Amino acid sequence: MKDRHLALKRSLGMGNLIFYGTGTILGAGIFVVVGEVVGEAGVLAPLAYLAAALVAFTTALSFAELGSRFPDAGGPIEYTEQAFGGRILPDACGWLLIAANIVSAATIVTGFVSYLNSFASVPSWIATLGLVVTITLVAGIGIKQSAWFMTVTTVIGMATLIFILWVTRDSLLAGASKMASASDLGLDALSGIFAGAFLAVYSFIGFGDMVQTAEEVKDVEKALPRAMIISLLIVFVFYLTISLALAGSSDIAVIADSKAPLVEAVAQEGIPKLPIAFASLFVIVNGSLAQIVAASRLMMDMARDDRSGMPKMMEMVNDRTSTPLVATVASGTIVLGLAMFFPLKALASGTSVAILLVFTAVNASLWRLKRTRQADNMTNIWKVVPILGTVFCALAIIGQIVLWVI
Predict the structure, then answer these.
(1) Beta bridge partners of 217
(2) Block means of pLDDT (10 residues each) for the chain, length 406 residues?
(3) Could you tell me if residue 385 is inside a domain?
(4) Which pLDDT score, from 0 to 100, does residue 349 have?
């Protein structure tokens, strides 16, 4: 049991959580990574997203049941300890996730700055400092304030995506037609789909950060599983339709090479770039905010459970903000240092494998737990789901390693 004076405040409803989750998952993926997926898979990019969705949804269902069973801010730390006992695996999951969240946040910050500089000349250090200080401040003020911030930015982003789909509606229809007529599924086409799918997997994995809010959600046993699945469904529809629109574009190569593929897509339709680029920034920033929130909750959970290497001060929850303020500031400070002074490309690619390793452990944990006990009043998914999740995540890890070797 957690000490009462260290408890977080339950202030998030399911609506807040859906927008929080949708913004977290979309993040930079829909505005940046989607172009790379189209570059790999071409007109068959929607199939790459379909394959990635199999990995995401099976694992999300496992997270949904475990989050209902054990509504703990530690998420995978708690799940693996409940399933396998001991300290080594839970501690490893905790440190892997903290590292992955912090590096991901720093990577998104540098991506934000690059995106900003594509249409506005701002010194990189000023943009980096301003963004990290802002999102750390929002994360420190309170989870409800963070969720409302992400609700506003997510609404702006979703409205922008709907506008993009309207502008590119001819390309959307053309993309559907091209995919339907693509009868040649030879080795090159299949390798392109798989390469695109490995990229697309990382566009979905933000759902894992939702479980770090478990101690701050009202009626968590029902709200967290439902919000997680609804958020994934919303995101999947956007990924599928946007990738179809880009696949049907008159010049896929230009879009695939662009740092701002959706901005390039609307520019090909004669729409000014600036409003779309500016609106895109609102959603990109969501990812870094959610990563800092998740990292701080993981630090807090590890500190209060006296896990190896975590300073005890990280468990402190501020009375006024009801947030782990010390851990939040520590997370933001490390993100700032990484974003300003370290090359992140190699680290970022490694974090995706780290997250998939944790996802594999989570699926295996649920499979083990379902063999021993099942509460009647909790979410209860089919027993085959965690098995499929374990297999899909393991295959994604192997595929990523193969791509590195190649």
Answers:
(1) 12
(2) 58 89 83 81 88 90 91 91 91 92 88 78 90 94 89 91 92 83 69 82 84 89 90 93 88 80 86 85 86 94 88 90 93 93 70 88 94 73 92 86 75
(3) yes
(4) 67
1 within some domain: no
CATH of the domain at 128: 1.20.1740.10
Among positive and negative, which fits the CA dihedral 6, 20, 391, 99? negative
CA distance 291 to 5: 25
Report pLDDT for 2: 44
User: Smallest Cα–Cα separation from 109: which of 44, 28, 179?
Assistant: 28
The secondary structure element, H or E, covering residue 383 is none
User: What span, in angstroms and rounded, lies between the C-alpha atoms of 327 and 337?
Assistant: 15
Whether the CB-CB separation of 168 and 266 falls below 8 Å is answered with: yes
Calpha distance 164→334 (Å, rounded): 35
- How high is the pLDDT of residue 183? 57
| The pLDDT value given to residue 3 | 42
| Cα gap 166→278, rounded to integer Å | 18
| Tally of domains in the chain | 1
Q: Quick one: which of 387, 362, 391 has its CA closest to 76?
A: 362
Is 214 among the domain residues? yes
In which domain, by residue range, is 277 found?
11-371+379-405
Distance between CA atoms of residues 118 and 147, nearest Å: 28
2 belongs to a structural domain = no
What does DSSP assign to residue 269? T
Contact (Cβ atoms closer than 8 angstroms) between residue 216 and residue 323: no
SS3 per residue for 122-169: CCHHHHHHHHHHHHHHHHHHCHHHHHHHHHHHHHHHHHHHHHHHHHCH
- Distance, C-alpha 309 to centroid of its chain: 26
pTM score, two decimals?
0.87
Instruction: Supply φ then ψ for residue 390, to 5 degrees.
Output: -60, -45
* Residue that is written with structure tokens 């440190």 in the block: 95
116 CB contacts (<8 Å, ≥6 apart)?
A: 122, 127, 281
Contact partners, residue 161, CB within 8 Å, separation at least 6: 30, 238, 242, 262
H or E segment at 186? none
